[in-house]
Amino acid sequence: MNILETHDIVKQYADHVALKKVSISVPENSIYGLLGPNGAGKTTLIRIINQIIAPDEGYILFNGEPMTRKHIDFIGYLPEERGLYKKMKVGEQSIYLSQLKGVPKQEALKRLKYWFQKFEIESWWDRKVEELSKGMQQKIQFIVTIIHEPKFLIFDEPFSGFDPINTDLIRKEILFLKEKGATIIFSTHNMASVEELCDNIALINKSKKILEGNVSEIIKTYTKNEFLVGLSDFKSSLNDILPSSLNPTILKQENNKADILFKLPKDLSSNELLAALIPHAHICYFNEQLPTMNDIFISNVKSQIDFSHE
Amino acid sequence: MNKILLIIRREYLTRVKKKSFIIMTILGPILMAAIMIVPVFIAKMSDERSKIVVLDENGLFYGKLESNPDISFAYTDAYIEDLKGTYEKDGYDGILYIPKNSVPNRAYIFSQKQMGMGVKSHIQSTMKYTLDNYIMQEMYNINRDSIRAIEQTTRVMLEQRKIGKNGAEEQSSTEINTILGILAGIIIYFFIFMFGSQVMRGVIEEKTSRIIEVIVSSVKPFQLMMGKIVGIAMVGLTQFLLWIILTFSIITVFKASMPEFFEMTSDQTAIQQNPSLANMTEMANMDMEESLDKNPEVTRVIDSLKSIDFTTMIFMFLFYFMAGYLFYATFFAAIGSAVDNEADTQQFILPITVPLILAIIMAQFVTNNPNGPISFWLSIIPFTSPIIMMVRIPFGVPISEIILSMTLLVAAFIFSTWFAAKIYRTGILMYGKKPSYKELWKWLKYKN
Question: What ipTM describes this predicted complex?
Answer without folding.
Answer: 0.81
